Amino acid sequence: MDTIDQCLLTVQTRIRDIAQAAGRDPASIQLLAVSKTRNITEIQQVLNAGITHFGENYLQEALEKIEALSTKAIDWHFIGPVQSNKTRHIAESFQWVHSVEREKIARRLNDQRRDDQPPLNVCLQVNISGELTKSGVDLAQLPELAATVAELPRLQLRGLMALPAPFDDLDQQRIGFRALREAMDKLNQQAYALDTLSMGTTHDLQAAILEGATIVRIGTAIFGPRQ
Ligand SMILES: *Cc1c(COP(=O)(O)O)cnc(C)c1O
Protein backbone atom coordinates (compact mmCIF):
# COMPACT_ATOMS: atom_id res chain seq x y z
CA MET A 1 0.00 0.00 0.00
CA ASP A 2 1.25 3.47 -0.87
CA THR A 3 1.91 6.09 1.80
CA ILE A 4 -1.07 8.31 0.99
CA ASP A 5 -3.46 5.36 1.17
CA GLN A 6 -1.92 4.30 4.44
CA CYS A 7 -2.12 7.79 5.92
CA LEU A 8 -5.70 8.19 4.78
CA LEU A 9 -6.68 4.95 6.45
CA THR A 10 -4.96 6.03 9.64
CA VAL A 11 -6.86 9.34 9.62
CA GLN A 12 -10.19 7.62 8.97
CA THR A 13 -9.56 5.13 11.75
CA ARG A 14 -8.62 7.95 14.10
CA ILE A 15 -11.77 9.90 13.32
CA ARG A 16 -13.85 6.79 13.93
CA ASP A 17 -12.13 5.97 17.21
CA ILE A 18 -12.34 9.51 18.58
CA ALA A 19 -15.98 9.80 17.56
CA GLN A 20 -16.93 6.48 19.15
CA ALA A 21 -15.08 7.30 22.35
CA ALA A 22 -17.04 10.57 22.47
CA GLY A 23 -20.33 8.80 21.86
CA ARG A 24 -20.71 10.34 18.42
CA ASP A 25 -21.69 8.66 15.15
CA PRO A 26 -18.54 8.62 12.97
CA ALA A 27 -20.76 9.09 9.92
CA SER A 28 -21.70 12.54 11.23
CA ILE A 29 -18.13 13.72 10.59
CA GLN A 30 -17.13 14.58 7.05
CA LEU A 31 -13.47 14.29 6.13
CA LEU A 32 -12.44 17.21 3.94
CA ALA A 33 -9.09 16.46 2.28
CA VAL A 34 -7.16 19.73 2.16
CA SER A 35 -5.28 19.48 -1.12
CA LYS A 36 -3.56 22.88 -1.38
CA THR A 37 -0.05 22.48 -2.88
CA ARG A 38 -0.80 18.83 -3.80
CA ASN A 39 -0.74 17.69 -7.41
CA ILE A 40 -3.38 15.95 -9.50
CA THR A 41 -1.82 12.52 -9.01
CA GLU A 42 -1.96 12.88 -5.24
CA ILE A 43 -5.55 14.07 -5.36
CA GLN A 44 -6.51 11.19 -7.68
CA GLN A 45 -5.12 8.76 -5.19
CA VAL A 46 -7.28 10.10 -2.38
CA LEU A 47 -10.24 10.24 -4.74
CA ASN A 48 -9.72 6.61 -5.70
CA ALA A 49 -9.81 5.74 -2.02
CA GLY A 50 -13.35 7.13 -1.87
CA ILE A 51 -12.89 10.70 -0.63
CA THR A 52 -14.96 13.16 -2.66
CA HIS A 53 -14.62 16.41 -0.70
CA PHE A 54 -11.49 18.49 -1.30
CA GLY A 55 -10.48 21.83 0.20
CA GLU A 56 -8.35 24.47 -1.51
CA ASN A 57 -6.98 27.84 -0.33
CA TYR A 58 -5.57 29.48 -3.44
CA LEU A 59 -7.92 30.24 -6.29
CA GLN A 60 -5.64 29.96 -9.31
CA GLU A 61 -4.18 26.69 -8.16
CA ALA A 62 -7.64 25.37 -7.35
CA LEU A 63 -9.16 26.31 -10.71
CA GLU A 64 -6.49 24.32 -12.53
CA LYS A 65 -7.29 21.25 -10.47
CA ILE A 66 -11.02 21.67 -10.81
CA GLU A 67 -10.60 21.89 -14.59
CA ALA A 68 -8.27 18.88 -14.74
CA LEU A 69 -10.67 16.78 -12.64
CA SER A 70 -13.89 18.10 -14.16
CA THR A 71 -15.16 14.64 -15.12
CA LYS A 72 -15.02 13.50 -11.48
CA ALA A 73 -17.81 13.90 -8.95
CA ILE A 74 -15.99 16.11 -6.46
CA ASP A 75 -17.31 18.67 -4.00
CA TRP A 76 -14.78 21.51 -3.93
CA HIS A 77 -14.56 23.62 -0.78
CA PHE A 78 -12.88 27.02 -0.77
CA ILE A 79 -11.27 27.45 2.67
CA GLY A 80 -8.81 30.32 2.15
CA PRO A 81 -9.21 34.07 2.50
CA VAL A 82 -11.67 35.42 -0.07
CA GLN A 83 -10.59 38.57 -1.89
CA SER A 84 -13.39 40.51 -3.49
CA ASN A 85 -11.84 40.39 -6.98
CA LYS A 86 -11.88 36.57 -6.78
CA THR A 87 -15.49 36.01 -5.85
CA ARG A 88 -16.81 35.28 -9.35
CA HIS A 89 -14.67 32.21 -9.91
CA ILE A 90 -15.27 31.02 -6.38
CA ALA A 91 -19.04 31.45 -6.78
CA GLU A 92 -19.08 29.57 -10.07
CA SER A 93 -16.57 26.77 -9.45
CA PHE A 94 -17.02 25.66 -5.84
CA GLN A 95 -19.78 23.86 -3.94
CA TRP A 96 -18.74 25.28 -0.57
CA VAL A 97 -17.03 28.36 0.87
CA HIS A 98 -15.94 28.09 4.52
CA SER A 99 -14.28 31.45 4.89
CA VAL A 100 -16.95 34.13 4.53
CA GLU A 101 -16.27 36.84 7.09
CA ARG A 102 -17.71 40.01 5.55
CA GLU A 103 -21.07 41.09 4.23
CA LYS A 104 -19.58 42.53 1.06
CA ILE A 105 -18.02 39.19 0.13
CA ALA A 106 -21.25 37.34 0.86
CA ARG A 107 -23.23 39.70 -1.37
CA ARG A 108 -20.76 39.33 -4.23
CA LEU A 109 -20.81 35.52 -3.99
CA ASN A 110 -24.60 35.64 -4.01
CA ASP A 111 -24.74 37.97 -7.02
CA GLN A 112 -22.21 35.92 -8.96
CA ARG A 113 -23.58 32.45 -8.26
CA ARG A 114 -25.35 31.44 -11.46
CA ASP A 115 -29.10 30.87 -11.55
CA ASP A 116 -28.65 27.38 -12.99
CA GLN A 117 -26.52 26.30 -10.03
CA PRO A 118 -27.80 25.14 -6.65
CA PRO A 119 -27.17 27.58 -3.79
CA LEU A 120 -23.55 27.88 -2.70
CA ASN A 121 -22.99 26.30 0.73
CA VAL A 122 -21.49 28.86 3.09
CA CYS A 123 -19.84 28.78 6.49
CA LEU A 124 -19.02 31.98 8.33
CA GLN A 125 -15.45 32.10 9.57
CA VAL A 126 -15.38 33.22 13.19
CA ASN A 127 -12.47 34.67 15.13
CA ILE A 128 -13.10 32.78 18.34
CA SER A 129 -9.97 33.39 20.34
CA GLY A 130 -8.33 36.52 19.03
CA GLU A 131 -6.33 34.16 16.89
CA LEU A 132 -2.99 35.02 15.38
CA THR A 133 -4.28 35.40 11.84
CA LYS A 134 -7.11 37.71 12.92
CA SER A 135 -9.24 36.08 10.25
CA GLY A 136 -12.92 35.79 10.80
CA VAL A 137 -15.81 37.83 12.09
CA ASP A 138 -15.82 38.67 15.80
CA LEU A 139 -18.40 36.86 17.90
CA ALA A 140 -20.09 40.17 18.62
CA GLN A 141 -20.68 40.81 14.90
CA LEU A 142 -21.65 37.24 14.04
CA PRO A 143 -25.44 37.55 14.52
CA GLU A 144 -25.63 40.49 12.13
CA LEU A 145 -23.55 38.76 9.46
CA ALA A 146 -25.56 35.55 9.83
CA ALA A 147 -28.82 37.47 9.42
CA THR A 148 -27.55 39.09 6.23
CA VAL A 149 -26.24 35.87 4.69
CA ALA A 150 -29.40 33.95 5.56
CA GLU A 151 -31.39 36.37 3.41
CA LEU A 152 -29.27 35.88 0.30
CA PRO A 153 -31.12 33.48 -2.03
CA ARG A 154 -28.15 31.94 -3.85
CA LEU A 155 -26.27 31.21 -0.64
CA GLN A 156 -27.17 28.44 1.76
CA LEU A 157 -25.92 29.32 5.23
CA ARG A 158 -24.74 25.98 6.62
CA GLY A 159 -22.69 26.84 9.69
CA LEU A 160 -19.50 28.18 11.19
CA MET A 161 -15.80 27.66 10.62
CA ALA A 162 -12.73 28.48 12.72
CA LEU A 163 -8.98 28.13 12.50
CA PRO A 164 -7.83 28.79 16.07
CA ALA A 165 -4.32 29.45 17.31
CA PRO A 166 -2.33 26.19 17.26
CA PHE A 167 -2.14 25.12 20.91
CA ASP A 168 -0.49 21.81 21.76
CA ASP A 169 -2.61 21.11 24.79
CA LEU A 170 -5.89 19.28 24.20
CA ASP A 171 -7.84 21.19 26.82
CA GLN A 172 -6.64 24.50 25.45
CA GLN A 173 -7.53 23.43 21.93
CA ARG A 174 -11.02 22.55 23.07
CA ILE A 175 -11.75 26.02 24.45
CA GLY A 176 -11.89 27.70 21.04
CA PHE A 177 -13.82 24.89 19.41
CA ARG A 178 -16.32 24.91 22.27
CA ALA A 179 -16.83 28.62 21.77
CA LEU A 180 -17.61 28.00 18.10
CA ARG A 181 -20.10 25.26 18.94
CA GLU A 182 -21.78 27.48 21.51
CA ALA A 183 -22.00 30.28 18.94
CA MET A 184 -23.77 27.91 16.54
CA ASP A 185 -26.09 26.62 19.27
CA LYS A 186 -27.01 30.19 20.10
CA LEU A 187 -27.87 31.00 16.48
CA ASN A 188 -29.91 27.80 16.24
CA GLN A 189 -31.89 28.80 19.33
CA GLN A 190 -32.94 31.81 17.28
CA ALA A 191 -34.26 31.25 13.78
CA TYR A 192 -31.50 29.20 12.19
CA ALA A 193 -31.03 25.52 11.37
CA LEU A 194 -27.27 25.40 10.97
CA ASP A 195 -25.83 21.90 10.66
CA THR A 196 -22.11 22.44 10.01
CA LEU A 197 -19.16 23.07 12.32
CA SER A 198 -16.03 23.19 10.17
CA MET A 199 -13.20 22.86 12.66
CA GLY A 200 -10.12 20.77 13.29
CA THR A 201 -6.95 20.25 11.26
CA THR A 202 -4.22 17.63 11.54
CA HIS A 203 -2.95 19.27 14.70
CA ASP A 204 -6.20 19.53 16.65
CA LEU A 205 -8.47 16.91 15.13
CA GLN A 206 -9.29 15.21 18.40
CA ALA A 207 -10.28 18.40 20.23
CA ALA A 208 -12.50 19.41 17.31
CA ILE A 209 -14.36 16.10 17.21
CA LEU A 210 -14.82 16.11 20.98
CA GLU A 211 -16.42 19.54 20.65
CA GLY A 212 -18.77 18.60 17.83
CA ALA A 213 -17.00 19.15 14.49
CA THR A 214 -19.04 17.96 11.51
CA ILE A 215 -16.33 18.75 8.92
CA VAL A 216 -12.66 18.24 9.74
CA ARG A 217 -10.15 19.80 7.34
CA ILE A 218 -7.12 17.55 7.07
CA GLY A 219 -4.09 18.06 4.83
CA THR A 220 -0.80 17.03 6.40
CA ALA A 221 -2.03 13.81 8.02
CA ILE A 222 -3.18 12.55 4.60
CA PHE A 223 -0.60 13.89 2.16
CA GLY A 224 2.43 14.41 4.39
CA PRO A 225 4.19 17.70 5.21
CA ARG A 226 3.78 20.56 2.73
CA GLN A 227 6.93 21.83 1.01
C1 LIG B 1 -4.07 24.19 5.30
C2 LIG B 1 -5.36 24.26 6.02
C3 LIG B 1 -5.89 23.14 6.68
C4 LIG B 1 -5.16 21.81 6.77
O1 LIG B 1 -4.13 21.87 7.70
P1 LIG B 1 -3.22 20.57 8.01
O2 LIG B 1 -2.46 20.98 9.20
O3 LIG B 1 -2.38 20.34 6.81
O4 LIG B 1 -4.15 19.43 8.27
C5 LIG B 1 -7.13 23.27 7.28
N1 LIG B 1 -7.82 24.43 7.25
C6 LIG B 1 -7.35 25.53 6.64
C7 LIG B 1 -8.15 26.77 6.64
C8 LIG B 1 -6.10 25.47 6.02
O5 LIG B 1 -5.63 26.58 5.42
Condensed summary:
The chain is an alpha/beta fold.
What are the key terms here?
227 residues, alpha/beta, 9-stranded parallel beta sheet, 9 strands
Distance between the termini: 23 Å
The main pleated sheet reads as: 9 strands, parallel
By secondary-structure content and strand pairing, the structural class works out as: alpha/beta
| Helix-strand sequence | HEHEHEHEHEEHEHEHEH
How many strand units?
Answer: 9
The number of distinct helices, counting runs of at least 4 residues, comes to: 9
Would you tell me the overall average pLDDT? 96
Spans with pLDDT under 50 lasting ≥5 residues? Answer: none
Structure explained in plain terms:
This protein has 227 residues and is α/β, with parallel strands linked by helices. Helix content is 41%, strand content 19%. The protein contains 9 helices and 9 strands. Strands 1, 2, 3, 4, 5, 6, 7, 8 and 9 form a 9-stranded parallel beta sheet that branches. Helix 4 links the parallel strand 3 and strand 4. Helix 4 crosses helix 5. The two termini are 23 Å apart. The model has no long low-confidence stretch (mean pLDDT 96). Bound molecules: pyridoxal-5'-phosphate (PLP).
